[in-house]
Amino acid sequence: KKLFCVLGIESSCDDTGAAVIRSDGTILGESLASQHAIHEEFGGVVPGLAKTAHEENIDGVIRAALSNANMSMEEIDAIGVTVGPGLEICLRVGCNKGRELAMMYNKPFVGVHHLEAHILMARIPPGKYDKNDGGENRSVAPYDEVTTTSHDERAMDFPFLALLVSGGHCQILKCLGVGRYSILGGTLDDSLGEAFDKTARLLGLPVGGGGGPAVEALSAHGDPHSLALPIPMQRRKDCDFSYAGLKTSVRMAAERICVERGLESPEELPFEDKANIAASFQHVAFRHVEVRLGRAMEQVEREDGIRTLAVVGGVAANKELRRRLNSLCSDRAVSWDMHVPPPRLCTDQGAMSAWAAVERLCVGSSDLAEDQDVFARYP
Ligand code: KG4
Ligand code: ZN
Questions:
Q1: So where are the chain's domains?
Q2: Which ligand 1 atom is the nearest neighbour of the CA of 200?
Q3: pLDDT in tens, 295-304
Q4: Which H or E run contains 68?
Q5: 226-264: string of b/e by CB count within 10 Å (b at 16+)?
Q6: pTM above 0.90, yes or no
Q7: Which residue's CA is the closest to the ligand 1 atom numbered 3?
Q8: ipTM for the assembly
Q9: Ligand nearest, relative to CA of residue 352
Q10: Position in ligand 1 atom list of the atom nearest CA 194
Q11: What is the CATH T-level fold of the domain 5-155+345-371, as seen in this structure?
Q12: Is CATH 3.30.420.40 correct for 160-340?
């Protein structure tokens, strides 16, 4: 089978990303312009500012991805662009650019679903991207022992179960094939990434690019059992999530400690207190994941014989989550295989749009660039 190369563009939120990927999963060139510094002072992404930054960055990012790949636009075989869900005015910047290039160079075009792109990243064949990057926690199987030669080979086959945990989404899905997903659970309120971001804000940690990394780093210095926070939705025996209640419990616990210390706000708490709060939050937030995911695993194992799990989305970059879900998989009566992209490919970047387009093209599916629209909500 002949290999082909796809240029991917991603601009659904606050990062402008582009990448060139070969259809065997080799990332040939990447570039990512982060807007963290722009949104930091507002404590969240400001859509108008994000749109302007995307417009300023997009040409440079695409040029850099191509030049890192040592390729010209003529040598690219197809273009993949995130068209939803996300911030509409931001999506439009990437979509318009992708359409323009597809029409100008007469290339096949794929309008990519951002959530599908997160999920499919777990199927990039092992060892195809930087080996130093994801080795330790990538999978229960030793990845370096696997070599792949054809684009029919993927890290994992359908069907599999996916846990998608990002800033915008928190879902458990049964993945049957490219474009074929069934949602087993979603969130009733906040996503897991949002819960991390709100905890970071409460404690006055840096939130640029999401508060997750800051909360994770701080948690390593705290006692996860120091605060007794309730595990959400204990009585509901389904696979849905809810993080709004945990957010309130964390804030109340932090305020109680403030009163004990005679301080005005949680931001003023000493390092040890903040670390204990962060660690306790993270512990319970992940316990909630284990309970809901464990239930979904039981269901698909029983009904469909599925024993493969993909963990994807920004929060999948978290080492503690990777460790705990690895145990969840290996502790089962018959152990499960777990696949997690390396951390830098869990969060938003251009390779995800490029790879999702590869997968769509491999099943003979593409879109008409001329007609492509963007979708803020995209079921
Ligand atoms: O997938 P992503 O980059 O964007 C969306 O599609 O939403 O996910 C971003 C989310 C943010 O909420 C961020 O705080 C969270 O992922 N995140 C983390 C970590 N890295 C990113 N959460 C916990 N631990 C991390 N190491
Ligand atoms: Zn994302």
A1: 5-155+345-371, 160-340
A2: 14
A3: 999 999 999 9
A4: helix 47-69
A5: bbebeebbeeeeebbbbbebbbebbeebbeebbeeeeee
A6: yes
A7: 347
A8: 0.99
A9: 2
A10: 12
A11: Nucleotidyltransferase; domain 5 (3.30.420)
A12: yes
